[in-house]
Amino acid sequence: MSDGSSFYITTPIFYVNDVPHIGHAYTEVAADVLARWHRQRGEDTWLLTGTDEHGQKILRTATANGVTPKEWADRLVETAWKPLLKTVDIRNDDFIRTTDVRHEENAQKFLQHLFDAGHIYTGEYEGFYCVGCEEYKQPGDLVAGAGEYTGQQVCAIHSIPVELLHEKNYFFRMSTFTDQLLAMYEANPTFIQPESARNEVISFVKQGLSDLSISRSSFDWGIKVPWDDSHVVYVWFDALLNYITAAGYGQDDEKFSRLWPATHIVGKDILRFHAVIWPAMLLAAGLPVPTQVFGHGWLLVGGEKMSKSKLTGIAPNQITDVFGSDTFRYYFMRAISFGQDGSFSWEDLSARYQSELANGFGNLASRVIAMVVRYCDGEIPAGGTPRDADTAIRDTEIRVTKTADAAIDRLALHEALAAVWELVDELNGYITTQEPWALAKNPDDRERLETVLHTVVRGLGTLAVLLSPVTPQATATLWAALGGTGDVQDAQIDRAWEWTGGSHVSPLAALFPRIEAAVG
To answer: Annotated motif 'KMSKS' region: location in the chain (predicted)?
Structure first.
């Protein structure tokens, strides 16, 4: 297994029953920013995403649209889910589909292994099932329906009626892992994060786990149970295995040993699957549990969770077509405390674009490059003896780099960006107090002018490195204008202040131009 020198990070694999909204893109961007940061540390990094294509929900959706489930999945993957990655600039290393042969064959190997080891048995189960969640629901997970569903019990997440099912299925002896899971949570306090998510899971497991129904015989869209092809594998048991089948389980031992275990970024509504069922499955198979499961909050619009069925879903391109992918990535990583629910509004997005990106970072970059071109013919000055104000900027570069890097280790993306923005603000303040335009008027202040410009160029380059995982397009443009060495995405991010470059800058167009069009 991985010795810790690699960083394997995953998003959930998303259902293809509908097109993606900004809630899905939020998860993708968070995982991508973390992956990019770790790559820039020089770590062996692997980012996995993909699609979940089996189960009753997909079958019903496909049937309603007059196509086979596979045809429906193919259509949605190619026209919606893979294009999403380009829309928000995701640099994934792999994209897995649960209909891939590599997944189906190796998922069956895993299941057969558990069966042979005595972890699976035949039984009967009756309970309330939510097709939207693809999960049997406990009484506490149900609420009274409203409107057309008045008088019925509905899923608290999807607000649709549950179905009473009675099936003869195969069961996973999950209950036998209750104590092992609790001991693992105790021994590794960071395994489930944030703390609220950890507390929720521990409380749930302490109530005692039931065995898990892991097959269905009432429909046939899914992976066949290897020893009984009249059953298909329960969609969640199937889907969770993508994290290891993509990493080489069952077919590439070297790759699997190098990558596994992984850090999982998931929405809080699927936390129990990843923090309870999934590690129990791995313990049964004798495999290491994930490095960490992080359950982030929901995106709220008008106080409600993002949902196509409730007409609160917003397509990512509605934002990127106006503001660009960098703004999308920056806004959701900065405006929302990662791990908590966050509200989206067009007004907040527009305000932050103008104040933080256009006026804050973008204007800083334009001013610095323009002053070097105007006062030094584009040559980056070496500068003279630094004063306290100059060394203070250098100290801030080092401090915010270390603070942001430590925040990334905690998956505190919003804290990392807040730290970096301290350098943006200090550089803008430094320019205001040092007044290079005034220094340029007096030949006796030439050395001081060059020191100031040298200081702000160095600071700007550090910002380019630190913001590269979040705003890759703008920072690549800025890096080229600064004459940075190589690709900014290859610059060592945990020592960002040590960046190197050439002797001249080149003109720079506005990184975040003014947007006049009304949005929302």
So the answer is: 305-309
Q: Are 501 and 482 in contact (CB under 8 A)?
A: yes
- Strands in 210-364 per DSSP E: 212-213, 215-216, 224-225, 228-233, 263-267, 292-296, 299-301, 304-305, 342-343
CATH fold group of domain 346-498: Isoleucyl-tRNA Synthetase; Domain 1 (1.10.730)
Q: Which residues are catalytic?
A: 21, 24, 130, 133, 155, 158, 305, 308
Is 376 flagged in the annotation as binding? Answer: no
Q: What angle do CA 418, 422, 424 make, to 5 degrees?
A: 110
369-415 pLDDT tens trace: 999 999 999 999 999 999 999 999 999 999 999 999 999 999 999 99
| Domain 6-119+176-317 architecture | 3-Layer(aba) Sandwich (3.40)
Phi, psi for 398 (deg, rounded to 5): -70, -45
CB 466 within 8 A of CB 482: no
What residue segments make up the domains of the chain, in order of their start?
6-119+176-317, 120-171, 346-498
Question: Strand 228-233 relative to strand 215-216: parallel, antiparallel, unpaired?
Answer: antiparallel
Instruction: In whole angstroms, give the CA distance from residue 139 to residue 209.
Output: 15
Find out whether 18 and 12 touch, Cβ atoms under 8 Å: no
| Residue 491 CB coordination number (10 Å) | 24
pTM of the model: 0.92
At residue 40's C-alpha, the angle toward residues 38 and 44, to 5°, is 55
Note the pLDDT tens digit of each residue in 232-244: 999 999 999 999 9
Half-sphere exposure of residue 387: CA atoms within 13 angstroms, side-chain side? 9
Q: Binding residue per annotation — 155?
A: yes
Tens digit of pLDDT for each residue in 306-327?
665 554 679 999 999 999 999 9
